Fold these 3 entries.
Entry 1:
Amino acid sequence: QRAATTYDRVLLKISGEALMGSLAYGLHPPTVARIAQEVKTVHDMGVEIAMVIGGGNIFRGLSGSAQGMERTTADYMGMLATVMNALAMQSALEGLGIHTRVISAIPMDQVCEPYIRRRAVRHLEKKRVCIFAAGTGNPYFTTDTAATLRAAEMSCEAIFKGTKVDGVYDMDPKKFPEAKRYDRVSYDEVLLQNLGVMDASAIALARDNRMPIVVFSLDEPGGFRGILAGQGTYTIVH
Ligand code: UDP
């Protein structure tokens, strides 16, 4: 049955590290399957879902360039890492009977679709989960910026950022038990206090396009569905 939700179309952003589970590197198939299940429960509510997955579990441009690699080359490697994660998520979702498309900002026709905005919108209308890969296609950006860009382009109502904690805190809640969680926080305060929700360019882009960011815990089973139905704890950056 359909649970009440006020959302018709959302974008789910997860980091590459969310797919790592207990591993130190790469993909943990049971964790990928669990997140796919979370996506399915929201898809079953009739919500149209776009996804952006990071690549940090495989490669990060900044660490590559710190090891002497040219920054742009390292960033392209990071973008390719996100394509691998997107394909893993596609496979897990299709295993649950959900129709999906992986759509890459860097064309690689044998592997997935190139990004064509109108075509992607059509997929969403047909209830296909669209997994946007290769970030923005540009070095010096992150997948948080890509998530904000795609959410705006797809007219999503909000970005749901699944993390390890249930919202935005004034201090790291894993280190400081007295840390306070915000129910709501403004884009400007996130930037000013350096709250580490997303990088500054992503927050600024969200602010300029009035795209709300809902930060919630992806570790909570059924959490994504609950948040969409207005339950559980989370922070809205607005
Ligand atoms: N990246 C990039 N341009 C983009 C998106 C990503 O160059 O538009 C590269 C960048 O090197 C980044 C890597 O891809 O370090 C992986 O993405 P990200 O760090 O955002 O992944 P996450 O931290 O979410 O796992």
Entry 2:
Amino acid sequence: MDELVALCKRRGFIYQSAEIYGGLQGVYDYGPLGVELKNNLKNSWWRSMIYENDNIEGIDAAILTNPLILKYSGHEDTFSDPMVDCKSCNLRFRADQVPNSCKKEDLTEPRQFNLMFKTNVGPVDDGANFAYLRPETAQQIFTNFKNVLDSTSNSLPFGIAQIGKAFRNEITPRNFIFRVREFEQMELEYFVSPGKDEEAHKLWVQNRIKWWNKQGVPTESIEIYDVPKDELAHYSKKTVDIMYKFPHGVEELEGIANRTDFDLGSHSKKQNELGIKSKVASNKDSNSKLAVRDEDGEWVVPFVIEPSAGVERGFLAILNEAYTIEELDDGKTRTVLKLQPHLSPIKAAVIPLKKNNEELVNTAKKIKDDLQNIGLGRIFLENTGNIGKGYRRHDEIGTPVCITVDFESLDDNAVTIRDRDTMSQTRLNINKLSEYLKEKIQS
Ligand code: ATP
């Protein structure tokens, strides 16, 4: 973990937030390479959910959340951890995470500590007008269920997906970006007819494992955890967690829950007309029935399967898998990030052999512009004149190919392609570069 943290800082993936003021615990900023990797990861998820499935739609809902949403979702009552205070060291811990150095007799009785952030809304800060910063992206998917259904022509089964920020006042943020207070989730709510839920749940567990494999997280690094009944969240009938071998231990990367008809049922009016199967609190505030009509015209509240993944945890798992130190023939070592090419922050570096040589730089610039225009991601002109250093830097940040423009290129219209993983160098005609790169990045 220490090596990953150091690499992230050194190369500009991740910085501690507010570092110049001593930081803000559990909050991180993403640097020039981090933002690219993160966007690539999110795009890959978005593509696999929405573009590849015509029955899944995307939304981007607000972070500021009407408290009624989180009242009826159950978060106001249940989204809390039992906490104890140590009277000796004056620190607060989750009841199940008290360090050995604290004595039992110094601890207070456990008290519930709500994990949601509140913020004042409007000009008067009197505590009455507040909103929550959403603790998960899922709820606005449920509250928009009818809107999306009415504006598209979907019928069951169909899904609504969202990527966005979520906030939790974690008591002990730790393990770098694994447990933080501000993070992003990639969540799909997949609505099915009651009775089709168990089959759909199994299918999504398989789909999600395959997707992680494609991001460079192999099945060997994953463990499947069938959450025991007494540990299930209040809305869940079954939850399977995809656990990953993080540097600090095996922990949750993504959870796939069968949320039954709890959420749509909870947020609906006239609940007694809907045949809701789960136990929901009576709702006097909603003005909508979040339900569909079946073939016989009867109201049915769909069941929902929810694959919910954290972007930060994905980022960390992917970096951990990609990070490699290789022994070279000359006894030296090299650090290489063997990222899947579609995730690499920079897709190709174009390096003129001699710094600031006009002809070489112009040729390199044209190659950069042409490759950039294919739309694969960032192509970088590396005008430092030090090829060896350029290769090392791009190995360390995971650039799949380096393209060197030398004096011969001006005559033979060819360049040297250097592969990140094999370090092999081949000569390729400039006209063939875009085909080569497309194949490399998209495969
Ligand atoms: P944990 O048990 O680790 O606190 P959770 O079960 O509360 O996680 P969920 O509510 O299922 O998490 O959220 C879905 C996903 O969101 C998790 O699998 C994780 O990837 C991500 N996530 C949740 N909390 C955090 C956090 N504090 N920091 C980073 N990612 C998080």
Entry 3:
Amino acid sequence: MEFDTIAAISTALGEGAIAIVRVSGEDAVEKVNRIFKGKDLTKVPSHTIHYGNIIVPDTNQVIEEVMVSVMRAPRTFTREDIVEVNCHGGLVSVNKVLQLILTQGVRLAEPGEFTKRAFLNGRIDLSQAEAVMDLIRAKTDRAMNVAIGQMEGRLSKLIKRLRQELIETLAHVEVNIDYPEYDDVEEMTHSVLIEKAERVRDEIRKLLQTSKQGKILREGIATVIIGRPNVGKSSLLNSLVQEKKAIVTDIAGTTRDVIEEYVNVRGVPLRLIDTAGIRETKDVVEQIGVERSKEMLQRADLVLLVLNYNESLTAADKELFEAVQEKDTIVIVNKTDLPQKIDLDEVKILAGNAKMITTSLIEEQGVDELERAIAELFFEGSLEAGDITYVSNARHIGLLAQAERTIADAIEAVHNGMPIDMVQIDLTRTWEILGEVTGETIHESLLDQLFSQFCLGK
Ligand code: GDP
Ligand code: ZN
């Protein structure tokens, strides 16, 4: 494919001492060479880096001292010629360099355009391209590892294998359609068909089962801390937040007034919701009311219900237990440094399947155990096995669920003795749907939408 030459700043703004302007396209080397004083970049070998100055061509005025890498197609990220200008100065000088490059008739890249080209030029498939985006957004090492695994094509490989198996299965169906007069062939085909289709279905199911964990790694476990006033909610929040200095950012949530904070608990990102509310008011349950707490609960993947070891259970406590019935909950009985007044047997009965942990946050007791409980609740240790292929992307999950339904239809059709061409349709459809994950069968507008979510310069 032929594209124009594009450029963008490809390092995160304000981060690090070196900023890079990336230029990709047929004219990349020639265009940068016009404003570079040093070696003739059009003559240097591919994949080499060169010291020199960026100059305004007309005046010879030096803009910036730089290192320029020249990488020629096809062994580059976009499979086009790429030139990267490494600037030492800050934002201002990197911007000047970019502006100068743009005045040479290079177009400013759209967000995600480099990655889009990598995809369109066949360098990476779609799920890998999406992984680039995940990688940029990854909040913990584990999330990053999942993204890297996907970028390296782990998911793509699996999907490709499943599609291959479907093709082979379809070939069996073809035989059956072409030679319907042979009863033996039909017999054999049906059993082979079912066996193969079931294997593909099982693999799709297995992948779908990782989606809860995948989604969590990608988006964080939406966590809500609830409890009566003074039981230690803020203290719990603070010990989760302070111990892990890995809080990434405060980002504005989807709803007004809701602050979300990320905490890295043993590689599991917790997304603490409405912590501002907990921080600012002393009486969350009383002030915002149980109704409001329930609203918060609806959006939670995980509820941390805090009780006071030093007080007996109250009606409000019991109401909170009622409200969390349907949720993954960990019950925390706090203030064990004080005399026991709570009836722990009663707590256990109310907790049901939920894990109960005792803490003294003031003495920093029990937080470790709590963190372990959180990790176990969501990953049951399975995350330690590094070779699992996770699906975390909502688009992939949707497609896989669709594929699972379609292949289940195919299997049922065979069982019910439906005409074999019906089965063929379902299997072909499954093959197509799986192809959308890797982008082998995909529509143009969807592509634009996907790539526009990327950061600039990627
Ligand atoms: P919240 O209203 O539920 O957010 O509770 P806070 O976290 O603000 O704590 C209320 C009070 O209990 C504060 O004075 C804390 O210092 C105190 N507190 C928190 N955890 C403990 C604990 O484990 N032991 C004791 N003795 N006091 C605690
Ligand atoms: Zn508080």
